[in-house]
C-alpha cells in the first residue's frame, strides 16, 4: 500500500477528527477517490439538490413551467435558514425563483413550498430512476414533527453533480440552468474555506475568474456536509465531503467538521492543480 497516496493523505489529515468523514471525488479523467463514500449520512440541506432535480425533470417534460406562480402560505412556515420567514405570507413568486432561493441561500420555506408542490414520493421516485438508491427525502421541513430531513451518501451526492457536469441531467439546457443556480451558492462552508480567495473573487481583483464553485452545503446538529463542482483552468472535478458522529453539536465557523473538511478540499485542490487536471 502506498502510504502517501492521496487517499492515505486524506485519512492522515482527518486522523484526529472525532467523527466520521465520507469523501467522493471524480476528475473526469478516470480517477475516482472514495472514502466511506457508500456510508449513509443525514443529508441536511443537501437534499435540496434532489428536490431541484425533480423540479427540472418536470420542467423538461413540460409538466410545469418555470414561470408558474406559487404562493407562500402559513403551512409553509418553518424556522431556520433563508429570507422568506422575514417576509409577509401571501408572497407570490415563480417556481424558478423559489427554487433559486432554496439553493443559493438554502431557504427552508422555499423548500417546503417546492416539496408540497412536487411531492415527497415524486422526489424519491426520481432518485431511484437516476440510480441514486441510497438517497431519500423523508419529509418536508418541520423541526417540531421530524428529526431527519433526508439521507444520502457522498457517492450519490457526487453522482448527481457528475450528471450536471456532463450535461446529462434531463438535458444540456436543464443541466446548465441548474449549474448556474449552484454557482450563486452563498454558503460554501467547506469546499472553498481554505482555497485562495484571490482566484475566487474576480470582482475585487479585476482579473478573470479562474476558479468557481457550483455547490450546495448542508448542516444539522449531527452533520456538516458540502459538495459540488470545482472549476479550474485545467478542467473540473466533483468533490463531496460529508461528516457525522462528531462530539460538538454547536454551530460556529471553526467547528472541527468545517476545519477538517476544508483541509480535505484544499489538499485535493492543490493535488489537482499540481497534476494539471488530475486528482491522482
Please give a quick description of this structure.
This protein has 280 residues and is α+β, with helices and mostly antiparallel strands. 37% of the residues lie in helices and 18% in strands.
Strand content: 15-25%
Task: Report the C-alpha radius of gyration, rounded.
Answer: 18 Å
List unreliable stretches of 5+ residues: none
Number of domains: 1
Cα end-to-end separation: 15 Å
What coarse outline follows from CA principal-axis ratios? Answer: globular
DSSP strand tally:
11
The CATH H-level homologous superfamily: DD-peptidase/beta-lactamase superfamily
The secondary structure category is alpha+beta
Q: Number of helical segments?
A: 10
- Estimate the helix proportion, in percent: 25-40%
Order of helices and strands: HEEEHEEHHHEEHHHHEEEEH
For the record, the CATH architecture stands as: 3-Layer(aba) Sandwich
Kindly state the mean pLDDT as a whole number? 94
Biggest sheet statistics:
6 strands, antiparallel
- Level-1 CATH class name: Alpha Beta
Kindly report the CATH topology.
Beta-lactamase
Description:
By secondary structure, the protein is of the alpha+beta class. The chain has one domain (6-274): DD-peptidase/beta-lactamase superfamily (Beta-lactamase). Helix content is 37%, strand content 18%. The chain contains 10 helices and 11 strands. The protein has helices spanning 6-13, 48-60, 95-104, 108-118, 120-129, 154-165, 172-183, 197-200, 202-205, 256-274, and strands spanning 20-26, 32-35, 41-42, 69-71, 92-94, 136-137, 150-152, 212-215, 218-220, 223-232, 235-244. A hairpin with a 2-residue loop joins strand 10 (223-232) and strand 11.
Amino acid at each position: 500500500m502506498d502510504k502517501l497516496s492521496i487517499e492515505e493523505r486524506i485519512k492522515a489529515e482527518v486522523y484526529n477528527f472525532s467523527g466520521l468523514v465520507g469523501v467522493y471525488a471524480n476528475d473526469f479523467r478516470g480517477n475516482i477517490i472514495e472514502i466511506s463514500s457508500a456510508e449513509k449520512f443525514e443529508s441536511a440541506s443537501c437534499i435540496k439538490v434532489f428536490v431541484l432535480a425533480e423540479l427540472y425533470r418536470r420542467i423538461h417534460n413540460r409538466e410545469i413551467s418555470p414561470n408558474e406562480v406559487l404562493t407562500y402560505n402559513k403551512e409553509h412556515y418553518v424556522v431556520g435558514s433563508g429570507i422568506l420567514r422575514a417576509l409577509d405570507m401571501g408572497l407570490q413568486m415563480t417556481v424558478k425563483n423559489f427554487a433559486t432561493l432554496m439553493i443559493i441561500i438554502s431557504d427552508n420555506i422555499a423548500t417546503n413550498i417546492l416539496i408540497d408542490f412536487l411531492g415527497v414520493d415524486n422526489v424519491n421516485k426520481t432518485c431511484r430512476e437516476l440510480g441514486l438508491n441510497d438517497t431519500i427525502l423523508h419529509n418536508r421541513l418541520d423541526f417540531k414533527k421530524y428529526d431527519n430531513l433526508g439521507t444520502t451518501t457522498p457517492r450519490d451526492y457526487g453522482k448527481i453533480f457528475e450528471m450536471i457536469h456532463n450535461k446529462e441531467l434531463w438535458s444540456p439546457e436543464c443541466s446548465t440552468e441548474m449549474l448556474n443556480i449552484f454557482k450563486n451558492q452563498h454558503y460554501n462552508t467547506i469546499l472553498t474555506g481554505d482555497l485562495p480567495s484571490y482566484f475566487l473573487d474576480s470582482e475585487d481583483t479585476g482579473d478573470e475568474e479562474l476558479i468557481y464553485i457550483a455547490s450546495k452545503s448542508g448542516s444539522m446538529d449531527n452533520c456538516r456536509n458540502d459538495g459540488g463542482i470545482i472549476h479550474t483552468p485545467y478542467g473540473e472535478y466533483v468533490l463531496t465531503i460529508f461528516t457525522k458522529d462528531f462530539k460538538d453539536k454547536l454551530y460556529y465557523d471553526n467547528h472541527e467538521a468545517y476545519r477538517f473538511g476544508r483541509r480535505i478540499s484544499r489538499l485535493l485542490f492543490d493535488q489537482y492543480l499540481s497534476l494539471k487536471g488530475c486528482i491522482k
